[in-house]
Amino acid sequence: MILLMFTLPKELIRSTLRIITLPVMIAYPLTTVFVGKILSEANINFQIKERQANILEGTDAGTWEWNVQTGETIFNERWAEFIGYTLKELAPISIKTWMKYTHPDDLKISRQLLERHFSGELPYYKCECRMKNKDGNWIWVLDRGKVISRTKEGKPLWMYGTHQDITDLKQAEERLKKTMDETIDTMSRIIEAKDPYTSGHQHRVCQLAVPLARELSLSPDKIEGIRIASLIHDIGKIGLPTEILSKPTKLTDIEFSLIKEHPKMGYD
Question: Rounded to whole angstroms, how far apart are CA atoms 65 and 132?
Fold first, then answer.
C-alpha cells in the first residue's frame, strides 16, 4: 500500500504523509508493546503448563477432572494406564467409568468422604480405593482432590484431583500387619501358658471389645488398636512368678500386691 502511495502526485503524497505520519508514530509503538505483552503472557502460560506437565510426569500421577453436576469427567492417559487400558479403550468416559472399575465397598467409603468434603467438613477429599485392572486383579490407588468451583447455589461444580498407584505400599503394609499379628498371637499364647487358669481370657475380651468399638463408630485405626490391646492387655503377667499365678490357695497380702502390679509391668 505504501508503494502505491508514491505513484500519486507529489502534492497528494505530501498531504497523505502529513495525515498518516502522526497516527503511525503513535500506533506503531503501542501496537508493538501490546503484541509484545500478549506474546510474553503466552510464553509464561506455556512455561507454567510445561512445569505442571513435568511435575505430573515426575510423580507418575493420573489426573482427573469431574463436573459434579453433569458427570462429565476428563482423565489423562496415565489414569487409564493404571488399570491396563488406554483412554480410547475406556471411551466413552464419564464418572461411571470410575464407578465401573472401583471396588463396591470402597465406592461407599468414597461417597461418604466426598459428601464430607462437599459440606466443608474436610478441606480435601482423600480415599484409598481398590480398582480392577485389565487382568482382573485388584490394584490400590490413592484418590485425592478438591472442589475448585461451585454453582451460584453453592453446590460443588468442578473438582480436580489425582490418582497414584499405592499397590506396593499396601502390600508392604499387609506383610507388616501379618508379622505383627503373628507376634501378638505368640505373646498371647505365652501369657496363657504362664497362667493356664485364665486361658482364653484375652480372646474373650477381644470378642467383646471389638464389636463395642464398631457400635460406637470408632475409626478403623482405633478399632485395630483396641483389638491388639485386648489380646495382650495381660502381658504384665509374664513378669510375675508362676507359683503365684497358679497358686491354688489364698494369696498373701504381699502376693496380692504383686498381682496388682501386673498392669503397670505391662505398660512399662
Answer: 21
Q: Considering the entire predicted model, what is its pTM?
A: 0.63
Is-contact 160 117, C-beta < 8 A?
Answer: no
What is the C-alpha to C-alpha distance for residues 162 and 216, in angstroms, rounded to an integer? 33
Q: Residues 171-267: name the CATH superfamily.
A: Hypothetical protein af1432 (1.10.3210.10)
- How many whole angstroms separate alpha carbon 30 and alpha carbon 43? 20
Over residues 197-243, the pLDDT tens digits come to 666 777 788 888 889 988 888 888 888 888 888 877 777 666 666 66
Hey, which bits of 3-124 come out as E strands? 62-67, 73-75
Closest CA to 131 of 91, 177, 87, 84: 84
In CATH, 60-165 is 3.30.450.20:
yes
In angstroms, the CA 70 to CA 155 distance is 12
139, β-bridge pairs: 131
